Amino acid sequence: MGDKHLSSQFDLELSGISTRVLEMGGLVESQVELAVSALTSFDGDIASRVLVAEERVNQMEVEIDHDLSAIIALRQPTARDLRLLIAISKTIGNLERVGDEAARIARTVHRLINSGVFSRLRLPVSDISFEAELATASLRKALDAFARLDTVQALEVIKQDNQIDQEFDGLMRKLITYMMEDPRTISASIDLVFVAKAIERVGDHAKNLAEQIIYIVKGTDIRHNPMDTVESVALKD
Amino acid sequence: MGDKHLSSQFDLELSGISTRVLEMGGLVESQVELAVSALTSFDGDIASRVLVAEERVNQMEVEIDHDLSAIIALRQPTARDLRLLIAISKTIGNLERVGDEAARIARTVHRLINSGVFSRLRLPVSDISFEAELATASLRKALDAFARLDTVQALEVIKQDNQIDQEFDGLMRKLITYMMEDPRTISASIDLVFVAKAIERVGDHAKNLAEQIIYIVKGTDIRHNPMDTVESVALKD
User: CATH number for the domain including A176?
Assistant: First the structure.
């Protein structure tokens, strides 16, 4: 503060961190897409690529967190900057959990392939694709809102989460019907239940990301608030 | 630093925060226990109490996070203290997620009661009790380790997570058998699948808490590391 040199150094470090957060975000987004395509194409090699990427994501979380702590300790940031740094720390925690969900899906694909179930049954995997498209679109939008600190777009992400939840509920009903019609499919269907749940959680993480963006920009913690409060905070000047 | 007055004021604030984190931890622990007892005793009133407590937990998360940011901005803490404050922020995020899992279980109990399924079927709810005992014991131990900054105990929590995962896998096998024997139980059993999953996640959150404790005390981020590395960090002088 007052020291131009220190201040611009801080801005430089911050923009470096933001770039890496977006890189990490792009990586987990493609992990989810790959994991779902591994499922719909019964492709174990693609699933393996997701699991390799998980290690890179975990490593990025630890590295960015370490750099955040170093910046806070070194630069004694203002209250506003501090809010940003802590929110970024929570954001990368969220992104790491998205990577976890993708890895869960990939491990399920391996298990389904190993059990030979894909050759015996016609699993309703295409329905899961649609839920996954909604969730990855939300995630992409949240990352885009983070890049531009855009609270209007963040608000859209929060509102869309409901749609993903409804898609998940519909999938549950379908899977239950499927199991009841042919109880031999129960074991494999339970795996799909968890895949659908993992994708629903990706939507939750995108929503959490959006809440952090509103906190960064507006300084108000809107988690656990009713939608009209969230809306008025996100849209206020 | 150097300033006795400021420093002891900081210690006072820090100990106040720690007390509230433990209070929040006690609350979510009892939420999980209540939610499971609502399930095993088919008691909708108990489930409702869990949902009331969830609002209090959410509120505590927001309040403690707010105070943490204020302390960091005001006290310009040393690197070590900063590590502690950021780790506490992650810890309460973890505890809030435990509260979420308890609320998920409570909502499932309501749904099962409303569907009248408890009077039609003998659901295998007692098996879930045992998994829940393991998970709440881990959570309690993690909170105790937090209170005493005890890395040996934190290490035990991390090691025990495996046992909860195995219990969960066993439960899945039982539930699948149960559904295959009587396909009319599928819908209710899927609810129990999610309850078992929620409890398994409580174990994961206890493990995350334990990892934060090791980070606070030893300054090494051991997330995503193999067990022998975790062990040597937790036990080093």
Answer: 1.20.58.220
Q: Which residues form the domain of B173? A: 4-235
Measured distance CA(A168)–CA(A200) in Å, rounded: 6
**The total number of structural domains that make up chain B:** 1
Give a three-class secondary structure readout of B200-228.
HHHHHHHHHHHHHHHHHHHCCCCCCCCHH
Q: Could you say which residues from 101 to 130 on chain A have a Cβ atom under 8 Å away from some Cβ of chain B? A: none
CA atoms within 13 A on the CB side of B221: 16
* pLDDT single digits (tens) A11-45: 899 899 999 999 999 999 999 999 999 999 999 99
Contact B229, B222 (CB under 8 A): yes
Measure CB to CB from residue A83 to each of B61, B69, B172 and give the nearest one: B69
Tell me, rounded to whole angstroms, the distance of Cα A220 from its chain centroid: 22
> In this complex, do B179 and A186 lie within 8 Å of one another by their Cβ atoms?
yes
| Assigned token pair, B20 | 């509230």
What is the token pair recorded at B161?
A: 């997570």
* Chain B neighbors of A58, CB-CB under 8 A: 223-224
B152: number of Cβ within 10 Å: 10
CB-based contact B150:B144 (threshold 8 Å)? yes
Cβ within 8 Å of residue B210, ≥6 positions away: B142, B145, B154, B155, B157, B158
Please name the member of A86, A184, A187 whose beta carbon is closest to the beta carbon of B89: A86
**CB spacing of B65 vs A221 below 8 angstroms:** yes
Question: In angstroms, what separates the C-alpha of A152 from chain B's closest C-alpha?
Answer: 22
Task: Tell me the pLDDT of chain B (237 aa) as tens digits.
Answer: 444 556 688 889 989 999 999 999 999 999 999 999 999 999 999 999 999 999 999 999 999 999 998 888 888 788 778 888 888 999 999 999 999 999 999 999 999 999 888 777 788 888 899 999 999 999 999 999 999 999 999 999 999 999 999 999 999 999 999 999 999 999 999 999 999 999 999 999 999 999 999 998 998 889 889 999 999 999 998
For residues A6 and A113, the answer to whether their CB atoms sit within 8 Å is: no
Residue type for B98, please?
Answer: V
